[in-house]
Structures are given as structure tokens and as C-alpha cells.
């Protein structure tokens, strides 16, 4: 049986829970996760735990914050005025939205509303949290050269269709059906 190592394509089922055992995510929702190992396509702590495993392996893994979404930073929590939001916007705690401009945007969420003062947090929602995974490896196979080239193209700014054009917003503009 093939072991998980760099340049292998891995398919797995997983359940992600918080420290209290609450399910945060699961492959039951979107189907098995498939990724190419060794290219930081999944959080580093889980990728490390998968290294050397074979098809059929089942295990539990606790990934510390520094190997997941990092620690939470206080400077990413800011208080702003309601006037900074569009007039008539329905603001509520938990609302997530994109902030920033161009390619320098990030998802932020409202964590507190006190009159006209709105507190927003730009930390990842799981920053500072240990992540508890239940994992089952479904398959491990050697990644083809074509799959690797498509990944490299996508990672270097291409749209992932393999046409070689530069990525621009929603697609590279080549017109092929492979653009995202």
C-alpha cells in the first residue's frame, strides 16, 4: 500500500470538533476531502499527522492553534462607528463580511454591538483554538504530472484551467470551461 508523502493525492473523511466536542465541520456535508499532500493545501498540523499513513488508516488528532489557524491577535479586533457601514445596513453579532480593498481583503465578523459602537474581529474564527479531528484515509495515489502542473499554475496566480493565462478576478479570460 502507498504511504502518504509529498506528491500523493489523498482522499479522506473527517470530522472537526472544538474542545467541547461540538462538531464544527465534517466531510459528511460536502463529501470526502481530496488534496495533494505536501503543498499546504490543508492546515499544517493535520498534514503532518497524515504523513506516512496508508489507505484505511483511522485516527484522532488534536492540532494546536500554532499548527492550525494561529493564535488570536488583539490588534485584529477593532471598534468602529456604525457610520462606517452603509446606511440602512442590518448589523448583528455574528455577521461576516469582506473588508479591505482589491486583493487585500479579509473576512471579518461583528462580535459586539453597543449603540453606535461596532466591534469587528479579523481573526480567523478558529484562531487560538485547538482542533480535534477524527480522520479516515479513503485512498492514497501518486499524483499525475498533469495534476501537479495544474496545482502549480493555480498557486502561481493562474486560474487553474491550465491555459497559461494570468488570473484576473473570476477567471483568466481565456474563455475555456475550466476557469473558476
Outline of the structure:
By secondary structure, the protein is mainly beta. The protein contains three helices and nine strands.
Q: Low-confidence segments, ≥5 residues, pLDDT <50?
A: none
In CATH, the topology of the largest domain is named: Chitinase A, domain 3
Number of domains: 3
The SSE string, one letter per element, is: EEHEHEEEEEEH
Could you describe the 3D structure shown?
The chain is mainly beta and 180 residues long. It has 3 domains: 8-69 and 128-143, Chitinase A, domain 3, CATH 3.10.50.40; 74-121, Thrombin, subunit H (Beta Barrel); 144-180, no CATH class. The strands form 2 sheets. Strands 1, 2, 3, 4 and 9 form a 5-stranded antiparallel beta sheet that branches. Strands 5-8-7-6 form a 4-stranded antiparallel beta sheet, with no helix packed on it. It has helices at 27-30, 44-50, 145-155; strands spanning 8-17, 23-26, 33-36, 58-63, 77-81, 96-101, 104-114, 117-121, 131-142. Helices cover 12% and strands 35% of the residues.
Amino acid at each position: 500500500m502507498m504511504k502518504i508523502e509529498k506528491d500523493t493525492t489523498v482522499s479522506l473523511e473527517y470530522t472537526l470538533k472544538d474542545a467541547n466536542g461540538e462538531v464544527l465541520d465534517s466531510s459528511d456535508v460536502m463529501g470526502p476531502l481530496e488534496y495533494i499532500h505536501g503543498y499546504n493545501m490543508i492546515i499544517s498540523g493535520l498534514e503532518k499527522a497524515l504523513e506516512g499513513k496508508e489507505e484505511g488508516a483511522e485516527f484522532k488528532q488534536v492540532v494546536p492553534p500554532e499548527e492550525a489557524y494561529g493564535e488570536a491577535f488583539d490588534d485584529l479586533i477593532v471598534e468602529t462607528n456604525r457610520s462606517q457601514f452603509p446606511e440602512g445596513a442590518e448589523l448583528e453579532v455574528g455577521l461576516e463580511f469582506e473588508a479591505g480593498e482589491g486583493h487585500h481583503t479579509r473576512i471579518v465578523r461583528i462580535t459586539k454591538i453597543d449603540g453606535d459602537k461596532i466591534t469587528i474581529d479579523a481573526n480567523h474564527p478558529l484562531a487560538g483554538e485547538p482542533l480535534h479531528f477524527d480522520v479516515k484515509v479513503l485512498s492514497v495515489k501518486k499524483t499525475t504530472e498533469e495534476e501537479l502542473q495544474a496545482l502549480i499554475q493555480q498557486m502561481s496566480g493562474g486560474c487553474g484551467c491550465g491555459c497559461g493565462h494570468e488570473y484576473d478576478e473570476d477567471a483568466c479570460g481565456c474563455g475555456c470551461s475550466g476557469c473558476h
